[in-house]
Design brief:
Layout (H helix, E strand, L loop, with lengths): L8 H11 L4 H8 L3 H8 L20 H9 L35 H11 L5 H8 L3 H8 L14 H4 L4 H21 L13 H4 L13 H15 L1 H50 L1
Helix pairs in contact: 1-2, 2-3, 5-7
Protein name: Cytoplasmic protein
InterPro entries: TrcR
Pfam families: TrcR (PF06242)
Length: about 280
């Protein structure tokens, strides 16, 4: 990575991801970000709510430079020469990290995430990453924090409290320190305690797709899946059909009973008429 970086690197990365065909590595190299951060921007996991800034209109990048980068994935983007010489701003290396007011309520969640996923980090390293205080870290670790019941571990990179590069650097420092301490104590090194290389974690090669199924196998698989999905409803449907059959069997009997009842009534009426005729005579 070069020393000169564009102004508002995350906003510039958002614009480059949305409006160009540059690779994640090129954008990360140009903006001074981690490749995973650029991937998070593309997946809307990082830099949510940040409006992209066009580096062409701001004079930091030319259209020809972007075209060359799109044609050659190995091309490294270069900042355009400034028309006005600006003095170099001295960056502050020491002191607590400034956290915006809108994100300060997320710091306890980030501290809890760091304590769970990277217990090898010192309190001073967590303070540098998140910008919190040592008593707060101790309270969250001992679960005596006033809001410990509602804390949810969240990645500080996703929350925007630190960059992935800073987090990786602190984790690597902690891993080296713990390795030296275990070596001095004569203990074996713990496997799997270091970060994987970037080329392994950002492998863009997709896994080969499985072999295509034949039509008969696909139909059989889909039919079996449909049977599984409708398996819970078949018993109910069968019960409903049985109930309807019972009702249909009962209705003819009822109609026959009604028919027999009407026949008996007609016979009694005829007998009454016959009995009444001799009396009248």
């Amino acid at each position: 990575m070069s020393d000169r970086k564009p102004l508002m690197p995350k906003a510039t990365a958002v614009w480059l991801v949305d409006n160009t065909a540059l690779t994640f590595e090129q954008i990360a190299e140009f903006c001074g970000l981690h490749v995973l951060e650029v991937k998070g921007i593309a997946d809307d996991d990082v830099a949510q709510g940040i409006k992209g800034m066009d580096p062409i209109t701001s004079g930091q990048l030319t259209r020809d430079e972007i075209v060359r980068g799109e044609e050659d994935p190995n091309h490294r983007l270069r900042l355009a020469e400034p028309k006005v010489n600006m003095p170099q701003v001295a960056t502050r290396k020491k002191g607590p990290r400034y956290t915006p007011v809108s994100r300060r309520h997320d710091r306890p969640n980030a501290v809890l995430w760091l304590l769970r996923n990277h217990p090898e980090l010192k309190d001073s390293q967590i303070m540098r990453l998140v910008g919190t205080t040592k008593p707060t870290i101790a309270q969250i670790r001992d679960r005596t924090h006033w809001n410990s019941a509602n804390l949810v571990p969240q990645d500080p990179v996703t929350l925007g409290l630190c960059s992935q590069i800073d987090l990786d650097n602190e984790v690597q420092k902690a891993a080296k320190r713990t390795a030296k301490e275990r070596e001095a104590a004569g203990l074996p090194l713990e496997p799997g305690g270091s970060l994987l290389p970037t080329d392994e974690t950002t492998d863009l090669n997709e896994t080969p797709a499985p072999a295509d199924e034949s039509e008969s196998e696909e139909e059989a698989r889909m039919f079996a899946k449909l049977q599984q999905l409708s398996g819970g409803n078949t018993s109910d449907e069968d019960e409903e059909e049985e109930g309807e059959d019972e009702k249909s069997e009962e209705t003819p009997e009822a109609s026959s009973d009604e028919g027999s009842g009407t026949d008996e009534d007609s016979e009694t009426e005829e007998e009454d008429e016959e009995d009444s005729e001799p009396r009248d005579s």
